């Protein structure tokens, strides 16, 4: 029997790369989108550092900001993992510069997938799309909660919420065989496949390099990128997953605990990691002129957590401990000379 073909959007991305690896390891043929064929060798090399793609990895040129190429990208495909999100400046004063491309890109993928008769689309959203209001400091929430859009929220959080909402609204008006499932991850760390496009692991690199004077009082639900890829595959094939949201968060840890793990677990390589706690008032003060900090000030001291009971119960998913993930991330950054 011929292997099923899966389309993964944004093949140069951090999460997408590990999804490609997992699919190939499970015997699937993979097609992935790139914005330029010049990127194909880099993707092959990154994936090939874990699994030999052979002739089972192919490429399609398609950009989430353009209609061209998407019908061809989904042709002959049984499943789509929509992992990519258009690039944008999270610190920009114009939130629509991030929101509109994310929402319209998702709709482009869904229109092509439903027209092409794809069995199921699994979309990567974010746990921040299922979070309580800014004024709720404690509590545990699940997939039934939707983040209320608020202009005061960071643009990235709004883009993830509004893109996922647009996807479900699209499917509500669609009458056909294609199904949708969405994955809502927390802070994605773990080993890298290449020294470029570090994505969310850049914060770990900065800690190791000693670029951060300390750790702000921010809690993260750390999920390993390998576990996240596994969750996408489970949601892709489980009969019960169609039409469902799944939180893919991990263990809740404070940034200072992450810094301590790096400092203690890396030996000489961790000597530059600062374990000092940065006071909340200093973070807020600095954010007045450093726009990159403004998106994190709303999270200072918050202990909101998400439950993954649904993914565990329906999909049999179980993420690994945060300490293992953080050290695997750090060691791969060092081994691949990314820092």
Reconstruct the topology from this structure.
Elements: E1 5-8, H1 14-25, E2 29-34, H2 40-48, E3 57-61, H3 70-74, E4 79-82, H4 96-115, E5 120-124, E6 140-141, H5 155-172, E7 179-185, E8 187-189, H6 202-209, E9 215-216, E10 219-224, H7 225-237, E11 245-248, E12 251-254, H8 255-265, E13 277-278, H9 280-286, H10 294-297, E14 305-306, H11 309-315, H12 322-335
Parallel strand pairs: 1-2, 1-4, 2-3, 4-5, 5-7, 6-14, 7-11, 8-10, 9-13
Antiparallel strand pairs: 10-12
Helix pairs in contact: 1-2, 1-7, 4-5, 8-12
CATH superfamily: NAD(P)-binding Rossmann-like Domain
Tally of separate helices: 12
Which sequence of SSEs, written as H and E, runs from N to C? EHEHEHEHEEHEEHEEHEEHEHHEHH
| Major β-sheet strand ordering | 3-2-1-4-5-7-11
Q: What is the share of helical residues?
A: 25-40%
> Which word captures the global form?
globular
Using only C-alpha atoms, the radius of gyration works out to 19 Å
Number of domains: 1
Structural class: alpha/beta
Residue stretches low in confidence (pLDDT < 50, at least 5 long) are none
CATH architecture grouping: 3-Layer(aba) Sandwich
Pick out its properties.
339 residues, alpha/beta, Rossmann fold, seven-stranded parallel beta sheet, three-stranded mixed beta sheet, 12 helices, 38% helix
Written account of the structure:
The protein has 339 residues and is α/β, with parallel strands linked by helices. It has one domain (5-335): NAD(P)-binding Rossmann-like Domain (Rossmann fold, 3-Layer(aba) Sandwich). Helices cover 38% and strands 17% of the residues. It has 12 helices and 14 strands. It has helices at 14-25, 40-48, 70-74, 96-115, 155-172, 202-209, 225-237, 255-265, 280-286, 294-297, 309-315, 322-335, and strands at residues 5-8, 29-34, 57-61, 79-82, 120-124, 140-141, 179-185, 187-189, 215-216, 219-224, 245-248, 251-254, 277-278, 305-306. The strands form 4 sheets. It has a 7-stranded parallel β-sheet, sandwiched between helices. A 3-stranded mixed β-sheet has the order 8-10-12. Strand 2 (29-34), helix 2 and strand 3 (57-61) form a beta-alpha-beta unit. The longest helix is centred in the first third of the chain and has 20 residues, at 96-115.
């Amino acid at each position: 029997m011929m292997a099923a073909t899966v389309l993964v959007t944004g093949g140069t991305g951090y999460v997408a790369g590990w999804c490609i690896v997992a699919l190939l390891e499970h015997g699937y043929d993979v097609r992935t989108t790139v914005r330029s064929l010049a990127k194909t060798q880099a993707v092959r090399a990154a994936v090939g550092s874990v699994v030999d793609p052979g002739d089972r990895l192919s490429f399609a040129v398609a950009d989430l900001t353009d209609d061209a190429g998407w019908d061809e990208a989904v042709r002959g495909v049984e499943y789509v993992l929509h992992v990519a999100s258009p690039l944008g400046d999270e610190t920009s004063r114009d939130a629509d510069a991030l929101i509109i491309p994310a929402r319209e890109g998702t709709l482009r993928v869904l229109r092509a997938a439903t027209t092409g008769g794809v069995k199921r689309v699994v979309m990567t959203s974010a746990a921040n799309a299922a979070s309580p209001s800014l004024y709720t400091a404690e509590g545990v929430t699940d997939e039934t909660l939707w983040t209320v859009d608020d202009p005061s929220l960071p643009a990235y959080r709004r883009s993830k919420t509004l893109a996922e909402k647009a996807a479900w609204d699209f499917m509500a008006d669609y009458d056909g065989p294609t199904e949708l499932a969405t994955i809502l991850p927390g802070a994605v760390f773990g080993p890298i496949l290449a020294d470029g496009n570090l994505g969310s692991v850049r914060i770990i690199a900065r800690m190791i390099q000693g670029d951060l004077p300390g750790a702000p009082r921010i809690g993260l639900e750390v999920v390993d990128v390998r576990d996240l890829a596994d969750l996408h595959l489970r949601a892709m094939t489980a009969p019960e997953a169609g039409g469902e949201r799944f939180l893919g968060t991990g263990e809740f840890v404070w940034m200072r605990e992450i810094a301590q793990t790096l400092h203690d677990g890396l030996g000489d390589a961790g000597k530059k990691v600062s374990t000092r706690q940065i006071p909340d008032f200093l973070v807020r003060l600095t954010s007045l002129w450093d726009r990159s900090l403004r998106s994190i000030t709303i999270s200072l001291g918050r202990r909101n957590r998400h439950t993954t009971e649904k993914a565990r119960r329906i999909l049999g998913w179980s993420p690994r401990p945060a300490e293992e993930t953080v050290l695997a991330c750090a060691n791969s950054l060092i081994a691949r000379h990314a820092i």
